[in-house]
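Hey, sorry to bother you again with one of my protein questions. A protein chain has come my way and I'm curious about its shape. I'm sending you its amino acid sequence along with the backbone structure tokens. I owe you a coffee for this, so here goes:
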Amino acid sequence: MLTRGELVITIVRLAGALPVLRWPFFGAVAAILVDLSDLFLMDWLGGVRDYQALDKWLDLSYMATFLIAAWRWKGTPRNVAAGLFAFRILGDILFEATGLRWVLLLFPNVFEFWFLFVAGVKQFRPSYQITPSRAALWLLPLLAAKELQEYALHGGKWLDSYVAVDVVAGWWRWVRAWLVG
């Protein structure tokens, strides 16, 4: 049975994934921002027993909508998306089986970054062709960026000791002090 906090976060995350089906790029940006919102909701609502496990399950909702949208693509973009999705799902299964967060470093969610990249290309540069060689070149910086993010979250656990609401309040105090002088 879900707690009240877990239920609210689940509803928000599931609803946040749906716009991807209509507007792949902007919906994906929204889904990722909604994914971050659970950090604030968890702080405000409380009652989240195992955030990492809940987050991984809810990530599947936006990843599923990303995959449905990617399935509409042709050729290399679609094939790479399918492979990256399967790779991440394998990592999620191993994470669930072991509970070891470092497993997520071995199976980074490059699928998410690939989807954003391709959806962005289709939105803003529709004539750009993503060939296998171009895909390989683009995957290198996407992998590097995602590994850095995965390390910050799961390897170094840089954010584990912070409360999202307190971080934003601290930033706001800094901005106000900077603006006021």
Q: What stands out?
A: The chain has a mean pLDDT of 89. Residues 75-98 form the longest helix (24 residues). Residues 4-180 form one domain.
